[in-house]
Amino acid sequence: MAIHSKGKKRGTASREAAAAAAQEEKAAAAFPKSKGIDVPSDPEHSSDDDEDVEEGDFEEMLKKMADDQGIDSEDAEDYLAGDSLDEEEGDEEDESDIHSSDIEGASSEDGDDGSGSESDNESGDESEADDSILERITSRSSDGQHTAVDSQDEEASEEELGEVSMDKLTIRDFGRDIQGWKEYRKTLPQIDAGYASDSSTEEPENTIGSVPIEWYEDYPHIGYDIDGKRIMKPATADELDKFLANMDDPDVFRTARDEVNQQDVKLSEEEIDIIRRIQGGSIPDADYNQYEDTVEWFTSQTMQVPLSGAPLAKRGFIPSKWEHKRVMKIVRAIRQGRITRPSAASSNAKPRFYDVWEKAEQDDDSTQQKRLARRARMPAPRMALPSHDESYHPPVEYLPTDAERQSWLDEEPDYRKKNYLPQDFGSLRSVPGYERFVHERFQRCLDLYLAPRMLKRTTQLNAEELMPKLPDPRDLRPFPSAQALVYLGHTGRVRSISVDPTGLWLLSGSDDGTVRLWEIVTGRCARIWDLKETVHMVAWCPNPDVCVFAAAAGSRTVIVIPAELCDEQKRLLSEELVRAGFNSSAQNEEEEDDDSLPVSWDMPTSTEQASGIHISVTMHKTVKSVMWHRRGDYLATLTAEEGGSSVLIHQMSKHKSQRPFRKLKGAVQCIMFHPTKPWFLVATQRYVRIYNLMQQALIKTLQPGVKWISSIDVHPQGDNVIVGSYDKKLSWFDLDLSVKPYRSIRYHQQAIRQVQYSRKFPLFATASDDGSIQVYHGMVYQDLNQNPLIVPLKILRGHEIRSSLGVLDCLFHPIQPWLLSSGADGTIRLWT
Amino acid sequence: MGKIKKKFSEGGSRTYTTRNRALRKLQVSLADFRRLCILKGVYPVEPRSQKKANRGSSKPTTFYYAKDIQLLLSEPLIAKFREHKIFLRKLQRALGKDDLTRAKGLESRRPEYTLDHLVIERYPTFVDALRDLDDALCMVFLFATMPAVNQVNNEVVDDCKRLSTEFMHYVIHSHSLRKVFLSIKGIYYQAEIQGQSITWIVPYQFSQNVPLDVDFKVMSTFLHFYRTLLGFANYRLFTMANLSYPPKVDQLMDDSAAGLGSLKIEAKRMEDLIKSAQPASGDDNSAARAPAAAMTKQMKQRLDTLGSKIKKIVAADASHINADQAPAYESVGESAADGDMDDEARQSGGLLFAKQVFFLSREVPRYSLEFVIRACGGRLGWDQTSGGGSPYAENDRAVTVQVSDRPVQGHQFLDRKYVQPQWVYDSINAHRLLDVDDYLIGQPLPPHLSPFVEYAEGDYVPEAATKMAAAAGFEGEVTNLKPEDRDKSEDSEEDGDDAADIDGASADEEEADSDAEEDEDEDDTAEKQRQKQLLAEQAGVPFSEYQQRQAQGKPKPKPKAANKKRSKAEVEEEERQKIAISMLSKKKRKVVNRTQDEATKKAKDINTLKARKSLAASKPVAKTSKSKRN
């Protein structure tokens, strides 16, 4: 019994069995249910083919199958020896009984529809088949009988039935009536454990346990049964017999040896088919349809009657608010045109280009005007057009030399004047692509949006147009233009020169302590006075009636009458002028004491008197400058000291000195009498002050705007003043116009030492440390409305520069258009 | 007392604003601001006083006009940029969450902006746009040759190719090409369109290397605007030339690398004209109706002249054996379009290459030569390997000139001239067909000079240029004239005086020429005189005036012995100049000094050129060997 039930539980049982059922009509006719079919048929098969298997492959395969799926119960049956074999026969009978009774029961209880339904379900669903079995079981259990276990075999079989059938079976109560139960049991249907039932609990037929077979290889038995008795191996034929049997047997290829059950197993057609399928890599089950139609889990048909009678919830028939919101969102998007159909969007597109300017021209004037006004105020400069040297085949002169090429390569790329190196490729085919092309475009882009722009109005000025419209110097002759004579003799710097009013004689005072008298025209040195000290200044008395000059040597000023130059009358007049003072000075001695001026009028020594020196005026400090008044009676001296006492005015006729300024601001640089008015000019470092000596008042302060005034001169007509400065500038003042310069001229490279007007010609000159003398035409018109005309005429060069000193003094000849100059090189030069 | 003024409420600090202040005001990122500036054409400025502009600080800063920034404030592009920023954020988020469907949907709705309004804003009139077309063309032509790599979008490259080809077609159609220059950087072209000289450079046809140190974001922003500008300009130019825009693409030709031939230039169809006229006539606007009326009038005229034109075409066909071989573009694109002027001009030989048929060997740059030759009225064919669609084969008997750039030409047809490509370019610059003997194959070429150089007085004129000018003098007056001058003399009878002058000049030249032949000693001086004449003519000096000048100048010539003496006088003069400079005000003196410096520098440059030339002349062996090698 147990064996049969087990056979029904085999994994692949149900469908295999169905296939087998088709082959065997007898079984099919006997059992309408497919599950039961294989049980009787298989033993028949196996009994027929009771042979050994020779092929090792099959044996192995079989073993595998046995391991995987559990051993077929019906096959195992055959191996049982002795009593177990008998039992099997009995079982066979039982089984047939059971089946027949099953049919009877079924037909009796279920009536006519039972067999019909079952035959319909013959190849149908497994679950349905199970259901039908269960139905029958339940119908029987309603009789009220109970089940009981009488033997171990039966118990085991019951255990093996599985949980599903167990519950159903214990419904009928038999009490102690075991025989009754046994009877009843025969009527019970075969139980199919189902496809998915567990077969791991199956045991082999011989109950030897899980002892390895090979342990018993050398024994006659293969193990022990539950009672400790040996289970003997079945009798085996010897090898020869086996061989012969194999030779005779046509089925030897499908026979495998089952070592556990000690029997040969003949594989059925289906099993071989399965093996083939496995070998071929397909699904072992021949009937399995991989591509079955889907079975709907829920039917598509609408049910007319509701499953539940409960009333519908309110939310079931009220539209969802949130859904509504979501929909509205989309609706709004569509309305606003945020969502469009892609096709609509593409068809809506305008042509990419159209005539924009035509549209603009149709606009009204104001908009267009606005646009025009908004146009770029500073259009970007255009790219520079290429020159010849950018050509692929330029003229030879545009190709750089090797040195130039190297210097270009060495230069920092940003500092190169041109961003390419001219090259000659000879022919167009050998011109390569230009590597920096993209870079240059990019650079242009950067320039366009990053470079600050500025409008630079550059009027194309011609240098000639800018030049002042000046008369040609050739028309302004005469003026000194070339060197005529050089007066040599001084051994030191010639600091000062002076020409006598007749224009015949020249005096010069030098650092070598001498004053020399020169004949201008010949350059002959007529006389030398050695004053022992540096002669800073020599000055002829401007009075033409007398022949007197003053020389400043050290702190002493001497008045000299060069007797040999003048006739008798002139000499007498001069001496009278010079000596008259001694009497008056004696008279006014007391007054002088009051003044306490640092001046003493002395008679020179007799030797000096012999040389023509008549008066010696001694002051405390070095005398820098001596200036005569135009009448020749007054003499102004400037000493190198601070304060008011640096400037003194001496009266020749009275031998009297006076201090015009109590206080003076700054260091006085030079002094001068005005040529026409009773004015006195004092130049400090930065300003020129003009005082009226009569009224004792300051008239004007000229502001030349220079750092350090070196010299001044007043135009003979008295309305114009020129100021030279150590910072190379010459300033022309028009006294009527302003206290600021009418014109500043800067040409000299070094400091200006002296400026001088010509007394007779409209000329003036500047002498500078750069060794040059510049001669200008300086015309002053009588008409007050006309500005003075200043024309540069000539640069005179000749003096050498000694210890960065050049020309120290210059002077116009009183009658001729000549210029005399003295320099640090100890020479005096005449320019005609 | 009046109200106390707030500081920085007027003056420089109001006129200018710094970049950071502008950013704060506009509430945009720096990148967006840059993009805006590029697109709107807003540029930084240099204030007159940095300190005043920057509220007392003298820190170096970038300044903008405050008004410009005010203008940017109302720019619709700012909103578009914001939209785009938001879009990017959404897309990023969708991609980050792997929500590809959403990303796809977003991508399909990517916000895009057009720059149409900027074109009209920056260039209120078409002439303004033409004036600023140089940079646009350079850029578009460059990107048309760019490889489609990461930085450069494929579509952009295609668009640039198309726009540039369209523009070239217009230049060809209007025959407005004036100057060409083969430089080491690329090929410069200059066209004159509506009185505006437009110059652009095209790189040689090699694959451009894409440098890493170039910010392609900036370039592409510029390019976006330039593409828009050029597109609108092309539209306008095509419409004004009565051509339909956009021209159709001939896919077959395009695939066979036909270059210019890939676009089909067609006359504006009648229907289009009518269509464009219709809405205007439908309006009540009388101003709009006027052009429509003009249009219909024009159409009538065209219809009237149609018959005669057809006759002309038929006659031309009959006379020309190769009529069926003639390229399609000629018959369709030019004669049928508003090309009556062109045809006549070509017939009368007004265009330079009107009577020439070129054949280009495969080693010459077809893309450039095709454009240049067609723009000057020539017809051409090319080797099959350099692109499809050639209307002439190499063995075509109609070919008169073959352009070839190889050391040796194997088989030569006797009925055509073989020249190197430089001949074509030099001829265009000289406005006449040059002597081919200088340009024969395998020969060292005469130097290629830049046509953009204009010689002022005292400039160095290379020998080749003087030679060219002299040769032009021999040719006679017509070739020597610029095309504009010719038009003028033809158009108006009033200019007869000028024409007479020119004739007189040329007659005089011929006389001088004969004189020169007689006496070889005077040859040099005569030639110099001629050059002077030519220069004077170029400068637009009337001949009578020129003669007067000559007459004044003539008694002056001095013997060579006087040279030294004069130099002494010059020295004096120079000194006088120096003294005079001292009389100038500081400002003027600076100017004068600068001009003098410039003059000395110029003289120095000329001296170096001369020195180099004499050096090269002293080593003629090296030179020839070099040219041979090439």
UniProtKB/TrEMBL annotation, chain A:
Keywords: Nucleus, Repeat, Ribosome biogenesis, rRNA processing, WD repeat. Residues 139-150 have a biased composition (Polar residues). Residues 216-480 form the BOP1 N-terminal domain. Residues 1-12 have a biased composition (Basic residues). It is found in: Nucleus, Nucleolus; Nucleus, Nucleoplasm. Pfam families: BOP1NT (PF08145), WD40 (PF00400). Residues 47-59, 69-96, 107-132, 151-162 have a biased composition (Acidic residues). Component of the NOP7 complex, which is required for maturation of the 25S and 5.8S ribosomal RNAs and formation of the 60S ribosome. This is Ribosome biogenesis protein ERB1. The gene is ERB1.
UniProtKB/TrEMBL annotation, chain B:
GO terms for cellular component: nucleoplasm; PeBoW complex; preribosome, large subunit precursor. Residues 348-441 form the BRCT domain. Its main location: nucleus. Residues 555-567 have a biased composition (Basic residues). GO terms for biological process: maturation of 5.8S rRNA from tricistronic rRNA transcript (SSU-rRNA, 5.8S rRNA, LSU-rRNA); maturation of LSU-rRNA from tricistronic rRNA transcript (SSU-rRNA, 5.8S rRNA, LSU-rRNA). One of its GO terms (molecular function) is RNA binding. Residues 595-607 have a biased composition (Basic and acidic residues). SUPFAM superfamilies: BRCT domain (SSF52113). Pfam families: BRCT_2, Pescadillo_N. It is found in: Nucleus, Nucleolus; Nucleus, Nucleoplasm. InterPro entries: BRCT_dom, BRCT_dom_sf, PES. Residues 475-630 are annotated as: Disordered. Keywords: Nucleus, Ribosome biogenesis, rRNA processing. Transmembrane segments: none annotated. Component of the NOP7 complex, which is required for maturation of the 25S and 5.8S ribosomal RNAs and formation of the 60S ribosome. Component of the NOP7 complex, composed of ERB1, NOP7 and YTM1. Within the NOP7 complex ERB1 appears to interact directly with NOP7 and YTM1. The NOP7 complex also associates with the 66S pre-ribosome. Belongs to the pescadillo family. This is Pescadillo homolog. It comes from Coemansia thaxteri.
